[in-house]
Amino acid sequence: MMPGTLPASIEYYLDEQRALIDRELDRLLPPADAHPASIHRAMRHSVLAGGKRLRPLWCLEAGRLFEGDESVLMPVACALEMIHTYSLIHDDLPALDNDDWRRGQPTCHRAFGEATAILAGDALLTLAFELLAGPLPVPPHVQLAVIRSVARAIGTRDGMIGGQVVDLETTGKSADAPALHYIHSSKTGALICAAVCCGALLARAGDEDLARLAAYGQRVGLAFQIADDLLDVLGSRDAAGKTVGKDDEQHKATYPAVYGIEESQSIACRLVAEACQELEPYGPRADRLRQIARFLIERNH
Asked: Fewer beta carbons within 10 angstroms: which end of the chain, N or C?
């Protein structure tokens, strides 16, 4: 879908970073036997099931671009992954997407029951904000900016919940291009953009740098969801780690449904190219952010 191939090192690098993030997530989550054990087992089941860990990685890499402190970036990165996992648990519920598989294993409600799954999602969201508001060696106004950025990204106004609502309301109906753009930019793109911006904020990036990183984040966030739409059409359950083909069955508003496969691939490639263009002032320092953006396209092969 995109000319050329990823450097061989990027796959190794992503695996290495996932391992670092997974270790920290394991440390930050309540132990499986901590009372009440049922909720903690459910939380750990969903968070530690694997996944690409791209949202925390985007936070880390954006911070590293400006020489941010790893000990400051990592708890925020992990909080973002907990928020993402909460959204997956709730998305999979019978009242929403009604999925049986996630990250290659039974969804939380299938493994622990619907009530526990709802509470596990709530608990992960709560724990995430506990981490975001915890003691961080940054000025209070920076920490507040991070908390506000994340809260807006997952809220109802151009955020994750707003996107999910419109996604539900358009399921089974004919969605136009503006509605599709809103769903994808809000439901998926907003949290990805916030992850990038939080990393830059924590590393004390300047206003111009923050604007560039936000533009990068907006484009890769939308490209990521388009790539996910394509994976639902072109991929397998083993590759995706979840049921594929459901978007078409449920008549979801997706880029392939509105634009077709080839045009969707072209749009995703253009967005990634535009995102990488925003990083030009940083030269080779931003290579990892470029490689991660291109990985979005390559993962559909």
From this structure: C
